[in-house]
Write a structure and sequence with these properties.
Layout lengths: L10 H12 L9 E3 L4 H16 L3 E4 L5 E5 L9 E6 L2 E5 L5 H16 L8 E6 L12 H7 L4 H6 L1 E2 L3 E2 H8 L18 E7 L4 H5 L3 E7 L1 E10 L3 E2 L11 H17 L7 E10 L5 E2 L2 E10 L2 H22 L2 E9 L3 E2 L2 H14 L3 E6 L5 H4 L5 E6 L15 H20 L3
This protein binds glyoxylic acid and manganese (II) ion (2 copies).
Length: 420
């Protein structure tokens, strides 16, 4: 670090905590899997809440499990400044996605406390429920409900693997006494939200720049398709008679790739990340298949055109193969524009520390996408090795993390005495 920074970051302690949290996982190391409300997710929540309480933060949880940990400021009348991220992890993930923004924020607060700083505005850490879409097919569940972007009716229809509803899960984990409608944040409840996160892309590392400041978050969408064909004996049913649900799914996956490649924009990305078949026996024709498709672009019109093309292809493929289908648009979101003054405040904090920074677009989505609908929002990115994320070999070095945390601490300190 340069000599310019005032708040000493205890990076050794933070790294130990990141390592310890990574061991709370559904899979053995180095794999991190923490699906929403799994035993590992629940234990990870306890781990983080304990760290928050140890430093005097006041912890509460809402009806969907978003955790709020507040460092009380001296002026209750001022809207708090918020930071945070997530600790759930997709299957076969690494240990930094989301976690750097949660444990890093705790260390940022500790560093401010050690320096004798006392906030005027409260500083609130938010640990969002289910940034990852693994359980319900929809990402950012907690922040969608906080911002009102997900209606309560729609939340009521969410199911995991067609079995358990969100309401079932709220009962299982003990949030049923609070009403889901109480999750929605009041207007003006925060003066700003800033999220520290690994870049999940290669640019900062390639350009050897320690800090990225996010100006825009790309527009995500996802759809789930259920395909129903006709099963049968793999030896007995001749090829012209078949109505194989998996083969329709395979054609759809190729149509997704084509729609992204031919959108006219290098920023369109399409992924069929889930393909399940029934009955899943080698000598039985697949009678049912489920696909989950993720499609994004920085420009909403381009993304929407590609989405339309995929949906047209689904109808054509299913007609030709005599497959019935149900297509559910799980989410079709707008991009988010970050707040220019907050971007400037992050840039000023980098200047204070003598750190170079670069303004950039986030291609991944984050809870910031929805917090941007609530209050001025931006993100601090740090490099990660080879841009790798959503894999066990995801890595950011202690030095890279330390710089991100120092910038976050600077921004929180700045915003907790001033407005932006
Ligand atoms: C977040 O995890 C994303 O898929 O962008
Ligand atoms: Mn992720
Ligand atoms: Mn993340």
């Amino acid at each position: 670090m340069s000599d310019g920074h005032q708040n000493q970051i205890d990076i050794a302690r933070l790294q130990r905590e990141i390592d310890e949290l990574s061991l709370i996982s559904e899979n053995p190391p180095p794999v991190v899997t923490r699906v929403l409300f799994s035993e590992a997710d629940l234990r990870a929540r306890e781990f983080v809440k304990k760290l928050c309480r140890e430093i005097g933060l006041v912890v509460r949880e809402d009806a969907v499990g978003n955790i709020f940990a507040r460092w009380n400021g001296s002026d209750d009348d001022l809207a708090p400044v918020a930071t945070g991220s997530h600790i759930d992890a997709i299957p076969n993930a690494g240990k930094f996605d989301g976690v750097v923004g949660v444990l890093g924020a705790i260390e940022a607060i500790r560093s401010l406390q050690r320096s004798g700083f006392s906030p005027k505005r409260s500083v609130e850490l938010i640990i969002f429920t289910a940034e990852e879409p693994t359980r319900f097919g929809i990402g950012c569940l907690g922040s969608r409900l906080l911002s009102g972007s997900l209606s309560l009716d729609r939340a009521g229809t969410l199911r995991d693997g067609e079995v358990k509803t969100l309401e079932d899960w709220r009962k299982t984990v003990g949030y049923e006494n609070q009403k889901l409608e109480s999750v929605r944040l009041k207007p003006d409840c925060y003066c700003a939200f800033v999220e520290l996160h690994i870049e999940q892309g290669p640019l900062l590392e390639k350009e050897n720049i320690p800090i990225g400041i996010v100006e825009k978050i790309a527009a995500p969408s996802s759809i789930r398709i259920e395909l129903t064909g006709v099963g049968g004996h793999a030896g007995a049913v001749l090829m012209p008679e078949r109505r194989d649900a998996l083969l329709a799914g395979a054609e759809i996956a190729l149509a997704v790739e084509r729609a992204a490649l031919e959108s006219g924009s290098p920023d369109t990305v399409g992924t069929t990340g889930v393909l399940r078949v029934e009955p899943g026996a080698v000598n039985s024709i697949p009678c049912r298949a489920w696909l989950e498709i993720d499609l994004r672009d920085t420009r909403v019109a381009t993304r929407d055109a590609a989405l339309k093309r995929i949906e047209t292809a689904v109808a054509e493929i299913c007609r030709r193969r005599k497959i019935t289908f149900a297509l559910d648009r799980l989410n079709v979101d707008a991009p988010a524009l970050c707040d220019a003054k907050l971007v400037q405040a992050i840039s000023d904090s980098c200047d204070d520390l003598g750190l170079a920074c670069k303004r950039m677009i986030s291609r991944a989505y984050h809870d910031s996408l929805f917090m941007a609908q609530v209050c001025p929002t931006s993100m601090i990115f740090i490099p990660c090795r080879d841009g790798v994320s959503h894999r066990p070999d995801e890595f950011s070095s202690p030095e890279q993390i330390e710089k991100g945390v120092a910038v976050l601490a600077g921004v929180l300190a700045r915003l907790s005495v001033d407005s932006i």
